[in-house]
Amino acid sequence: MTESLVKSVNHIGLTVTDLDRSLAFYTEVLECSVVMRQEKKGGYLAAIVGYPDAEVSMAHLRMPGADQRIELFEYRVPRSVERELEPCNVGNAHICFVVEDLDRMYERLVVRGVQTISPPVAVDTGVNKGGAALYLRDPDGITIEIFQPPHRIEGES
């Protein structure tokens, strides 16, 4: 067996229309913490993303209880083009946050005016049977899943 060249995931990148608005949502609603924030123009960034005049405002957020980061990119140049961010569309992705008490999290979301696609839904089949989940959208329509794993009894599979 050959050694894996891929060692880990550094971050999940999301393009947003308003970095300040997204930072407020991800820090206040989803309890992420800002690791860094910066502006980039041209140079290596332009080469990587394939836009010669690229200008971005960006931030890295640490996800609660994890080393994973979310990178938020607001393109100043070129400007973003609107598109349908439906869960069924190819290329659409979602981020799943794990919570201990989905009902309490749902109450928090409602109080903050966050609209969810559904209230908490019990998972009634498969490996996550006994858990619960809901989907919501961030300020740009990016899909977020909030998931409460099933409570397992020791020795149960």
Structure write-up:
- Residues 8-149 form the VOC domain.
- InterPro entries: Glyas_Bleomycin-R_OHBP_Dase, Glyas_Fos-R_dOase_dom, MMCE/EMCE_epimerase, VOC_core.
- Keywords: Metal-binding.
- This is VOC family protein.
- The strands form two sheets. This protein has a four-stranded mixed beta sheet, sandwiched between helices.
- The chain has 157 residues and is an alpha/beta fold.
- The longest helix is centred in the N-terminal third of the chain and has 11 residues, at 19-29.
- The chain folds into two domains: 11-77, 2,3-Dihydroxybiphenyl 1,2-Dioxygenase, domain 1; 94-148, 2,3-Dihydroxybiphenyl 1,2-Dioxygenase, domain 1 (Roll).
- It contains three helices and eight strands, in the order E-H-E-H-E-E-E-H-E-E-E.
- Helix content is 18%, strand content 32%.
- The protein is globular, with a radius of gyration of 18 Å.
- Strand 7 (132-137) and strand 8 form a beta hairpin.
Defining traits:
157 residues, alpha/beta, 2,3-Dihydroxybiphenyl 1,2-Dioxygenase, domain 1, 4-stranded mixed β-sheet, 8 strands, VOC family protein, MMCE/EMCE_epimerase, metal-binding, VOC_core, Glyas_Fos-R_dOase_dom
Short summary of the structure?
The chain is α/β, with parallel strands linked by helices and about 160 residues long. It is built from 3 helices and 8 strands, in the order E-H-E-H-E-E-E-H-E-E-E. Strands 1-4-3-2 form a 4-stranded mixed sheet, sandwiched between helices.
Question: What does the secondary structure layout of this molecule look like, with pairings?
Answer:
Elements: E1 11-15, H1 19-29, E2 33-41, H2 43-49, E3 55-62, E4 69-77, E5 94-98, H3 102-111, E6 121-122, E7 132-137, E8 143-148
Parallel strand pairs: 1-4, 5-8
Antiparallel strand pairs: 2-3, 3-4, 6-7, 7-8
